[in-house]
Specification:
The chain is α+β, with helices and mostly antiparallel strands. The chain has a single domain, classed as 3-Layer(aba) Sandwich (Glutaredoxin), CATH 3.40.30. Helix content is about 40%, strand content about 15%. The chain is built from 4 helices and 5 strands. It has a 5-stranded mixed sheet with strand order 2-1-3-4-5, covered by helices on one side. A hairpin with a 6-residue loop joins β3 and β4. The radius of gyration is 17 Å and the shape is globular.
Length: about 130
């Protein structure tokens, strides 16, 4: 293994700190849950997941957002699916996500606090949402 310079070591340390911060769940209220069942993976959920992680980092939201994987969400016809749980906004499941729409999801939903109306495939009924 080649020797690393001090600058390379510092960069490695910073990268690992960011990885650890991203994995922390304590104190984070925003969740992004990507459906990674077999059908989701076949439809491109891994690429969608990676793009969400990248976009969250680009917007500097890594300390506020939990990004996790789950199995099948039961919406196989609109895979890949992504559920977003965020205080002050309805819980929403987005479908037919791509790398491009994943980036748009982070910008619109998390930063601008508006919904991606054309990708919503499930949300709680208005009469059961707590106010």
């Amino acid at each position: 293994m080649a020797k690393m310079t001090l600058e390379q070591l510092r960069k490695l340390r910073e990268d690992k700190k960011q990885d650890l911060t991203r994995r922390e769940v304590e104190g984070k209220e925003i969740q992004i849950i990507v459906g990674m069942g077999t059908c989701g993976i076949a439809a491109g959920a891994k690429q969608t997941f990676d793009e969400i992680v990248k976009a969250v980092d680009e917007y500097g939201l890594g300390a506020d957002v939990i990004i996790r994987q789950t199995g099948c969400m039961g919406l196989c016809y609109v895979e890949p699916t992504v559920e977003v749980v965020m205080p002050g906004m309805p819980t929403v499941i987005y479908g037919k996500m791509t790398q491009e729409t994943a980036k748009e999801l982070v910008r619109k939903h998390l930063v601008e606090k508006s919904l991606l109306e054309n990708h919503i495939f499930d949300r709680p009924a208005a009469d059961i949402v707590k106010k």
